């Protein structure tokens, strides 16, 4: 049985975990001071050695990303932290920033030092006002403490950290769209190449990292690469935050080594809500193909999930029990993608518009089995044809759900609507039943 | 093809012809026997007792076949607005180049048809028209159809170029003479779906 | 270009090898093989965007295949690349059909009413690369049908496929980012800022490059179908940029003009004036019959023989001179030039029907005739100096070409002027601010090399000493010099010798061998040897009584500073006017001969580079004749034939003359005038013509006029403070002749200067003030 390994979330239960004093009580900012005494390239090497991979979804090795930044080019370099957490079901960065914003700031100091950036930006989604306030306060405190600004820790290194609040667009979580938005334009993905490492923010070499990736860095510096790589599996090292939501007894963040299984996580979190069984779940947010109870023992690391036909993504485990109508759930997700499609490319813009209309018909019992084939063919025409991954993500829940639950789709057609009681899936239903 | 025609076939043809004529035997046997001659009149006798097919046109006018291709007609929507949108597809389809159309924009003050565009100039040149009906098939709004009218003779060329006013269908019951606004709460799609029953009182516009 | 080494890369597309320069996009490499990959957002002159996803193909490089189809419009060729298009790859074919199906789900079935129908890339490619049926049974997205984004461009958002060609053009090419995409998802749409419509000088290009009928022009709306139109390659008559155009005519009427494709000159663009200002040809007041002034002094319609005879009789009686405007074709100008020398026996001919000086005439003979600067030189220049020249207003394609290099490689542009213009701001020009008339004093401060290009406008002659100083500067630095007149015919008129000091081919009148040369070619015994008079001198001579007759072609008296004298001269002299529409000249003329407009005749212009721009008659059944033909008839009548009965004959004879290979005349430095001190409320006038203004060739096109920049008086912040006005308040500018009241705009302008548009609505400087630049005017709050 894998145990939880709280590192990032170790002190979330303390009353002042978000203050600079609370952070420093447990050795906060020591790692930054230590890193600034190392050579920048040694920091990059350390992160490379630790095996830390991007926690934003794609799982790209963080140290390697830093290493792509051309050195000695006499250009400004930038670090951009992607805190535009908008994936349905994903809820790890916001609690992290709410409970411990200083770990991100410390990570920014170390990462900026490593890539020789004098400016770092945190791009945070606009809706989370309370988190924005808390992070801004933390930045102000860090400036006041001399951890940001000129000559930090007396090392001669300068770093300006800017918090930028987005206007609320899912697409701005895509790194190049985020850069456009940060520059003041509409957030739409950019053509690659050039990649951000060569021409990113203001056409300068830029590293874009997820909050959790950067926040994991101080611990690596503090405890060493070996400590970090001792956790997790062969190719997926370290601990990470798993977010359990939906029909689960104790939803929340669970920090565990990569490779833990849902069965273990459910045991820790009290299991599926009482009286019900697991029907399907997402391993990493709605953009990853869904899993069923057959995948309870799939190791939740990059390779394990991938081998089972999905993606680890943001480790947003949304749990749905048997009261949930699969068509309804997929329709809701698809409506989200239609609403959030930026409109730049045809497959995503028009495809999501169309997918929603077909799914609505299916949910209300209209249409025929041929529509399922049409839906799958349409997904085939979107998947891999769109400009960025948003279009691909929109098709994942549809193709995977038809794969596992084709009968339920057909049942809608034969039943003339949803055969399930949508009310039974709500939290009110369990309250009423006295569970 | 042209070469073949000119050099290979033409020069040989007169020779072949001459040969054929010269080799044909000339036969002259004198008059045919009486029986044979009477046999020749048999068809005539037989026809004398049949009901004549002749129609006393123009005193008598028989109806044509239902789908006879006659003079064209530009139809109207049930409220009187013109169906023609001036798209020129009929002119495009016409193999005889007999149709001339100019489109124009409908304006709030001058609405001739539902939607953005109407046919401002519409001419069919009946000296050219071959009544093939391709224009009818091309028409996307069923504005152009053919009537069974076939009396299209006249004594000047100009009068056989029919203008829009010559081709437009007459106003029927419930129709108003355009320009007038579209039926309230209806768009051009409603018109094509046949949702407009007849003119609405609000469509009556005073012409000052 | 030929000496630049280009790396070639060989790739295999659908089994065929093709070698293309490094950096070529796959889609264009395929074009070289004749393989057409369908596309919407791709445009060779715009940055790749990869938005429409219509051009997906399968690609593998050195045996490694991309896992999914790639947009061929965004990927440059690489060694070892194997491309499979829709022709050989089932995956690419299905991807393209899928994208096409999706593009069509929200596209309205407007084809029958859409102006693009019949020449629509979406229609065509849906047929060639789409499926015959759509599986879409849902609800289409709808928007309010067409909205005016300017008075001349309509936007139908339902039809838009969001390829962003228009917005990219406006931003990247024209630098007028007045339209942009807004909203998101399927509701994404092209939009304008509601307080600032799409008033770009280049907006018509977006209509032309729109791959669907989303952007349409108001003047062509519902006018015709492509199969109605007869297209003729033509050249633009509006300015000296030399755009190649396509003129589309339906039943003898020009319905539209499109930018032609000429990589050396206008690439694929033109300006809105060239695109839409052609209604003057079909104006109701168009002259159609010859007219002769009768015994009672009234103009009366006459037959052609009558009119020609009357003209010949009048010209024979007295000494005559020729005033030919700057809009004549090369062939017509050559006709006037030969007519003056051979038939009238004089060198008194001048094409400069505008403010002009003797210094300019010498500059033309010494420098312009030799200038060989081209658009390519701008492409390669290390810096560009603009003097007395506003490219965006006065030669818009030159502006686009400079802007292209500014955007591509931050080409350094320096502008010597009194006011910073919108165009120069867009070029990020280094603005050297001088008082009107003092431009020459700023020249020494500009660093130039042999790789630099100096572009000088016709307004430079309005500042005494400037042209000779520029010529000297070019000589000293080796910089390439080009003189860019505003009118399309001026460079051709110089070549044709329609000026008193030059014979055709740049031959100086003063040079005896040049005269012998021309006399021999023309079959006459001699060419008059005395230098001809300039426009102003001719007018003065008429008023003095030494010249008794004028042949005037396409001249507006209000284009010069001395229009009172000119009107007096027109009244005094026997005037033969060759015109297309009634004007101040025709009302005073004794014989009026209607002539053909550009769309009705063939001929050519020389653009500012000296490059020949040929045009054919687009309206073939026009009854109108070219000027040169009428001149030839008059010459015959006068028994001194010029034997140029057709444009072709004129063109052939002119070409056979060739260019002068002798020494050009020298240019002496003219001294710069010093400006007298100004009183408190006085300012020096500076002005130029805006691209869209009240020019006579723009009349009759209200949609175009609607996008003209609003007339304003521009003063400096210091002057604004001293007379107590702020932006938008009315200011009165006056001199002893008249006054103009317009709203004020406080901007970057020399403190001593006041700027007004030269010929815009409510601001006709020459008519009101009798001057247009350099003169002292009074500026007060109204």
Automatic annotation (TrEMBL), chain A:
InterPro entries tied to this protein: ComplexI_51kDa_subunit (IPR050837), NADH-UbQ_OxRdtase_51kDa_CS (IPR001949), NADH-UbQ_OxRdtase_suF (IPR011537), Nuo51_FMN-bd (IPR011538), Nuo51_FMN-bd_sf (IPR037225), Nuop51_4Fe4S-bd (IPR019575), Nuop51_4Fe4S-bd_sf (IPR037207), Soluble_ligand-bd (IPR019554)
Cofactor dependence: [4Fe-4S] cluster; FMN
Keywords: 4Fe-4S, Flavoprotein, FMN, Iron, Iron-sulfur, Metal-binding, NAD, Quinone, Translocase
Pfam families: Complex1_51K, NADH_4Fe-4S, SLBB
Molecular-function annotations in GO: 4 iron, 4 sulfur cluster binding; FMN binding; metal ion binding; NAD binding; NADH dehydrogenase (ubiquinone) activity; NADH dehydrogenase activity; quinone binding
Annotated ranges, domain NADH-ubiquinone oxidoreductase 51kDa subunit iron-sulphur binding: 327-372
Presence of the UniProt keyword Translocase in the record: yes
SUPFAM superfamilies found in the cross-reference section: Nqo1 FMN-binding domain-like (SSF142019), Nqo1 middle domain-like (SSF142984), Nqo1C-terminal domain-like (SSF140490)
Keyword Flavoprotein attributed: yes
Reaction(s) catalysed (UniProt annotation): a quinone + NADH + 5 H(+)(in) = a quinol + NAD(+) + 4 H(+)(out)
Any single biological process term in GO: cellular respiration
SMART domains tied to this protein: NADH_4Fe-4S
Family note: Belongs to the complex I 51 kDa subunit family.
Official protein name in the record: Unannotated protein
Species of origin: freshwater metagenome
TrEMBL record, chain B:
Keywords of the record: 4Fe-4S, Cell membrane, Iron, Iron-sulfur, Membrane, Metal-binding, NAD, Quinone, Repeat, Translocase
GO molecular function: 4 iron, 4 sulfur cluster binding; metal ion binding; NADH dehydrogenase activity; quinone binding
Cofactor (UniProt): [4Fe-4S] cluster
Pfam families for this protein: Fer4_7 (PF12838)
GO biological process per UniProt: aerobic respiration
Annotated 4Fe-4S ferredoxin-type domain residues: 74-104, 120-149
A GO-annotated cellular component: membrane
Family, as annotated: Belongs to the complex I 23 kDa subunit family.
UniProt name for this protein: Unannotated protein
Organism: freshwater metagenome
From TrEMBL, chain C:
Domain 4Fe-4S Mo/W bis-MGD-type residue range list: 229-285
Keywords, in A-Z order: 2Fe-2S, 4Fe-4S, Iron, Iron-sulfur, Metal-binding, NAD, Quinone, Translocase
Record CDD domains: fer2
PROSITE patterns associated with the record: 2FE2S_FER_2, 4FE4S_HC3, 4FE4S_MOW_BIS_MGD, COMPLEX1_75K_1, COMPLEX1_75K_2, COMPLEX1_75K_3
InterPro entries: 2Fe-2S_ferredoxin-like_sf, 2Fe-2S_ferredoxin-type, Asp_de-COase-like_dom_sf, MoPterin_dinucl-bd_dom, Mopterin_OxRdtase, Mopterin_OxRdtase_4Fe-4S_dom, NADH_UbQ_OxRdtase_75kDa_su_CS, NADH_UbQ_OxRdtase_ferredoxin
SMART domains xref list: Molybdop_Fe4S4, NADH-G_4Fe-4S_3
Cofactor(s) in the UniProt record: [2Fe-2S] cluster; [4Fe-4S] cluster
Domain 2Fe-2S ferredoxin-type: residue ranges: 7-89
Spans through the membrane: none
Domain 4Fe-4S His(Cys)3-ligated-type: 91-130
Gene Ontology MF, one: metal ion binding
CC per GO annotation: membrane
A Gene Ontology BP annotation from the UniProt entry: ATP synthesis coupled electron transport
Keyword DNA-binding: no
Assigned protein family: Belongs to the complex I 75 kDa subunit family.
Listed name of the protein: Unannotated protein
Source organism: freshwater metagenome
